[in-house]
Amino acid sequence: MTALEVRGLAKAFSRPAVQGLDLAIAPGEFYGLLGPNGAGKTTTLRMVVGLLAPDAGSVRIFGIDALADPIAAKRLVAWLPDEPLIYDKLTPLEFLEFVAGLWGVPAAVAGPRAEELLHRLDLWDHRAERCEGFSRGMKQKAALAGALIHDPRLLILDEPLTGLDAAIAREVKAILVERVRAGGTVILTTHILEVAERLVDRIGVIQHGRLLAEGTLTELRERVGRADSTLEEVFLDLVAAPAGAADPQREPA
């Protein structure tokens, strides 16, 4: 069983945003979804988590048809968008209690988990302050804690390190790696390619809503013929290649 299986996913606005996208991500995998601005990454993830209806295609999360049974699928997923979404009038502790209640997490479990998350994300000393006075980085940390409070099997993050200082960014990366080592699945988008190079197991590169290439960094290096290149160099080669050239096995669009 896959953690996430996407088949033929498509969405158009004034122009096609995602075009016949196929993805299969295994349980316990740290997957990086990379692409230039406007490539379709966020649109894809919003369809996966049920915030946007696809025009075509299917989404299965741990075997559950997310389009036919969205509530069951959403119970297994947490979504952290690039803009933190929290209730400004609540304190971080109140926010976590609220989110835990929405997911039906027992108070005896939610309390210790909230305390641990607030300590790790350096929010414990601010637990009684309203979030409305927080910086963007502090709001991002509170939103991440909210995403983790129900211990999701699949964690999807869109640019999660934006606005974080170096120390907290390092702690966030450590939390994500720990989740994967414990059997969780993480999908990450980021424009900080050095972060993706250090963290992820496998990479998917999309452009114009299509999958250009997918594999480990070693496999992507082999594909572009640059054995010792950084992920940044490989990525730039892939997105600069003529349509269809990045993957010789893929039929031209």
Polypeptide structure, described:
By secondary structure, this protein is an alpha/beta fold. The chain has 2 domains: 1-76 and 153-210 and 239-244, P-loop containing nucleotide triphosphate hydrolases (Rossmann fold, 3-Layer(aba) Sandwich); 88-151. It is built from 9 helices and 10 strands. The chain has a 6-stranded mixed β-sheet, sandwiched between helices. The chain has a 4-stranded antiparallel β-sheet with strand order 2-1-4-5. A hairpin with a 2-residue loop joins strand 4 (56-61) and strand 5 (64-65). Helix 3 (92-102) packs across helix 4, helix 3 packs parallel to helix 5 (136-148) and helix 8 crosses helix 9 (231-240). The longest helix is centred in the last third of the chain and has 16 residues, at 166-181. The protein is globular and about 55 Å long. The two termini are 29 Å apart.
